[in-house]
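[Discussion] Sanity-checking designs against the backbone

I'm trying to build intuition for which residues belong where. Below is a structure token string of 591 positions. I'd appreciate it if someone posts a full sequence so I can compare it with mine line by line.
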């Protein structure tokens, strides 16, 4: 279907690919993964239209290849009056109308050769799309996605997540030979994520999907393309299998490296010994021995294995350190023990209501206490974004933020990182980060390359923008963090680093998220937005609800065990307990 051979490409200040090669075979469901900023979106753009790029190597497409594409950004005209079924039918009806128009022109008897070629091309396209059966195909796809009841709903009345799934469905219905999806899961709620996974798994064509979503990666793909450090690794199998192979190779490389270092040390000692002997006596044979051992040492050093896909860097995310001030006087009980201090209220919402998209959110009442970590969860279009926007504006009489608690926010609504015309360096200087050297050292911890310093903020990838916002929040010293979809666009390594950082943070957190793992692993409780209001539920009840309504219980529990095993494996690696690593990897392979 697609062959990429010895591809090299980059910008003056940054190489993206150096001599990479891979194949996308017909019928494969390929996931393209890699750290933020490695050039995944650029690579798919080159596959779709390589003539816009000046590169070395070859990109070979099958002559019959018709490509479809769905962007990570979904923009719709909310004033359009079409139903969902009419929206999905549009391209089929346009093709049929074009066929009818060409037939009318042919009846006039002019330019017959040109018209006949056009007519035949349209017939071929209609056949490729199975246009004669488009109505049945649309109903079948809606059924697969669990969206049958939306068929006669106006597009203007559906949620943003539902619209995004429909865009992907629309491209699938056109039956391209290769369908490319760029982060199709971003901002999807649990229901729409489930619909997307069903569509992907039932799609018979070839897929190339950029995604960082752990659920999709574990459920929907049989080939992994991993882009890292200008190189690409091709793996036939599931993501879970790939992770096990990565960890097993990491262990083998570690053990091999230990043996190599021991051999290098022994050889260095022998070289030093022979050099000393050569300096003590003039003997050509000793000189030859020195040269031979030095050559052996050079070969050992040269063949040390570099593994960009094994030692993937993880951001060093450390959220603000909350320091408790010692009071001059602490009240104690009769035993001299201090009375526990009462936590203060950080955020209070009283009788809040708002109208959005012709819907009403009302009777919203909740408090968030100091030190609590709370997740706002709800389906797309239920008012979470509107609520967060009003909290950030803080000009609604129903919303009270404790004035004595410093707060910071990371928000898709705030738009500072996405819209600023400043360079990264200029923005961080404005924020008081100091010298260029200090800023470069700081962003390196967040796995942002040094060349981003002179890029405009809006030029960064979505994941790099999010990492930059997290870096700004982490340096704020805030005691209350408001995070709006904090893991969106982040690669898997950054997601896991952020999870750990939130879990270790001693302050208060309010986060809006559709990331099951983030909510399940970090939230003390959940504020569920549904049926026009907000209700508080325990984290355990939230997990049970997700299991019952959206995902398979056994899968999620197994996946949580796998994550814990991976954490244990990495800790064992850190402590150089390689026998334990071997046992844990064997256990992970059996899950």
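Best answer:
Here's mine. Compare freely.
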């Amino acid at each position: 279907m697609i062959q990429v051979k010895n591809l090299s490409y980059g910008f003056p200040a940054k190489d993206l690919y150096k001599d990479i090669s891979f194949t996308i075979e017909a019928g494969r469901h390929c996931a393209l993964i890699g750290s933020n900023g490695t050039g995944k979106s650029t690579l798919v753009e080159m596959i779709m239209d390589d003539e816009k790029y000046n590169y070395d190597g070859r990109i070979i497409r099958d002559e019959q290849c018709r490509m479809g594409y769905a962007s990570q950004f979904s923009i719709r005209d909310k004033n359009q009056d079409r139903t969902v079924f009419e929206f999905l039918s549009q391209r089929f009806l346009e093709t049929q109308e074009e066929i009818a128009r060409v037939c009318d022109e042919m009846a006039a008897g002019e330019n017959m050769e040109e018209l006949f070629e056009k007519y035949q091309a349209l017939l071929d396209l209609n056949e490729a799309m199975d246009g004669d059966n488009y109505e049945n195909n649309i109903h079948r796809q809606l059924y697969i996605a669990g969206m049958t009841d939306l068929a006669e709903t106006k597009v203007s009345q559906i949620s943003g997540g539902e619209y995004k799934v429909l865009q992907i469905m629309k491209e699938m219905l056109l039956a391209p030979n290769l369908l490319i999806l760029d982060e199709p899961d971003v901002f999807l709620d649990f229901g729409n994520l489930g619909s997307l996974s069903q569509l992907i798994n039932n799609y018979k064509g070839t897929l190339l999907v950029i995604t960082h979503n752990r659920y999709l990666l574990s459920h929907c793909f049989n080939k992994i393309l991993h882009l890292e450090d200008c190189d690409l690794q091709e793996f036939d199998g599931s993501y879970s299998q790939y992770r096990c192979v990565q960890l097993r190779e990491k262990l083998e490389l570690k053990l091999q490296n230990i043996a190599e270092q021991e051999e290098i040390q022994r050889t260095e000692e022998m070289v030093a010994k022979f050099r000393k002997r050569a300096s003590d006596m003039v003997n050509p044979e000793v000189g030859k021995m020195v040269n031979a051992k030095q050559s052996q040492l050079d070969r050992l050093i040269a063949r040390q294995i570099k593994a960009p896909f094994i030692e993937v860097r993880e951001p060093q995310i450390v959220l603000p350190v909350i320091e408790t001030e010692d009071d001059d006087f602490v009240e104690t009980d009769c035993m001299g023990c201090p009375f526990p201090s009462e936590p203060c209220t950080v955020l209070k919402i009283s009788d809040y209501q708002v109208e959005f998209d012709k819907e009403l959110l009302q009777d919203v009442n909740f408090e968030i206490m100091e030190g609590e970590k709370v997740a706002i969860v709800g389906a797309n279009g239920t008012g979470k974004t509107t609520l967060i926007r009003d909290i950030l504006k803080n000009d609604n009489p129903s919303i009270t933020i404790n004035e004595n608690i410093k707060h910071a926010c990371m928000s898709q609504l705030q738009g500072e990182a996405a819209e600023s015309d400043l360079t990264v360096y200029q923005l961080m200087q404005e924020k008081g980060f100091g010298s260029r050297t200090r800023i470069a050292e700081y962003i390196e911890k967040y796995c942002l390359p040094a060349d981003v310093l002179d890029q405009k903020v809006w030029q960064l990838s979505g994941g790099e923008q999010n990492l930059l916002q997290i870096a700004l929040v982490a340096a704020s010293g805030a005691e209350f963090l408001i995070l709006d979809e904090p893991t969106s666009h982040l690669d898997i390594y950054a997601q896991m680093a952020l999870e750990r950082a939130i879990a270790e943070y001693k302050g208060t957190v309010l986060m809006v998220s559709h990331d099951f793992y983030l909510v399940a692993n970090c939230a003390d409780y959940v504020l569920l937005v549904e049926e026009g209001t907000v209700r508080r539920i325990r984290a355990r009840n939230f997990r049970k609800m997700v299991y019952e309504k959206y995902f398979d219980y056994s899968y999620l529990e197994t996946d949580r065990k796998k994550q814990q095993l991976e954490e244990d494996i990495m800790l064992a690696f850190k402590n150089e307990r390689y026998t334990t690593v071997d046992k844990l990897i064997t256990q992970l392979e059996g899950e």
